């Protein structure tokens, strides 16, 4: 039997139970007290039976009855309090584990998130941790408790008669060996079942997120087909794992009946040869019945361990996944607008398929750059590298002369603001959506930015002003309004470099123009990079970079390139309506 599950278990347990050591110790003390009481109560009843036979009705019987009541009352009290403590410890430990997992997953690179669906991650962060709650609260304490109870009963039986102790000890050994042997295959089945469950939830999450597209494209039957396929796999793997765990239970019930019979037969034998009183026979029967509880519980806890081992394996797997993006040492570029330099940067999402090839350019601080090029040319990839969602395989990116890999990631993301055409809005108030839950941004700042990007009329029509709740995923807002809110959100963080990736693509021409004017104010004192297919969006930028098949084919001041009839940019300007891809 491998001890790896136990070492894993103890390292997780030590990490998350340490802060609750006081409660865990109190819980253990209460459980220990209840072991003593559980052994003591039948002894009092045994004495009661013998005293009745020997003395008839007497004062001693009343004391024994009262003692029995007190012992029962204390046992129940200890159980209630320890159950409360178990729940409390379990919830606190699992919540802390959940929070750590979530923080870890959020810090992983984009490549990881592209490989895992949201539903799958939810299931791993919440589902797996939920399944560990018993494991955290009860496993060690209950295992110890029941093993001690088992030992206590065997000692008590041995004190009555050594033959009793030996026979019942051998019986317990038989039960444990039989159940452990039967349980061998269960772990792998639970691993498969948990995988099937996260696959199911991953698919469900994805389908729900894309419900509009699914309906409009008429692909409901495809979704149902895959829903049933995954659901069926989840159902069958879970029921197989459950059944494989149920067979030891069925066998254990048979063995427990055998144990009771053994106790009764041995008690009767000792009574027949005059070595036991009726009270002792009663005690032997109660103790051999009481043996079932720890044997049963040890078996259940071990079965839960099987389930938990698969969760722990998956949780550990997640914790041991490291982001390919390493945090910098915290070098700070000079304050204010950032210059951007790409030095011979090459990058590909997959090996051997370069997307950017030897890209070099320098954008001085405070200037704005428009990047144009055909679809799939690598424009968005440039912004992802800037933001360190990926790191280039070759070359260096500098922000005000400092390699951007040297900045702390949180500093980088504070100083660089990114707006894409996919706006993520939360089911929260307008204020929280704009400030990202930061409380130090004043109403005045928010209203100024809203006015600058032309959202004042929209704001004044809101029922509760900044406290108006937005629907999930921006429901109730037009795509253009959502995009304008994303603008406001980024500008409120006061970045030194702003990157707009097709950020105004969903705005009607009039709103787009309003935003253009507001943007001039907002770009003031900052460096800007604008990616746009619509060339009219680039009317105010200082420089232009033309990208084709991942290579820079032109870079220079916009006005110069526009007036040079041989430049790629001026040729692009002559395409119909400024559209750059035919
Ligand atoms: N996450 C990814 N994994 C693998 N390949 C990717 C990924 N993202 C983009 N690509 C590929 O990289 C190439 C460049 O994509 P990128 O999004 O940078 O182009 P783009 O110029 O911004 O295109 P568009 O104008 O359509 O937005 C494309 O061939 C695309 O298929």
UniProtKB/TrEMBL annotation:
It holds the Pfam family ABC_membrane. The keyword Aminoacyl-tRNA synthetase does not apply. Residues 25-307 form the ABC transmembrane type-1 domain. It is found in: Cell membrane. It comes from the Bacteria. Keywords: ATP-binding, Cell membrane, Helicase, Hydrolase, Membrane, Nucleotide-binding, Transmembrane, Transmembrane helix, Transport. GO terms for molecular function: ABC-type oligopeptide transporter activity; ATP binding; ATP hydrolysis activity; helicase activity. It is a multi-pass membrane protein. Gene3D superfamilies: ABC transporter type 1, transmembrane domain, P-loop containing nucleotide triphosphate hydrolases. The keyword Transcription does not apply. GO terms for cellular component: plasma membrane. Residues 340-574 form the ABC transporter domain. CDD domains: ABC_6TM_exporters. PANTHER family: ATP-BINDING CASSETTE SUB-FAMILY B MEMBER 10, MITOCHONDRIAL, ATP-DEPENDENT PERMEASE MDL1, MITOCHONDRIAL. This is Helicase. The lineage of its organism: Bacteria, Bacillati, Chloroflexota, Ktedonobacteria, Ktedonobacterales.
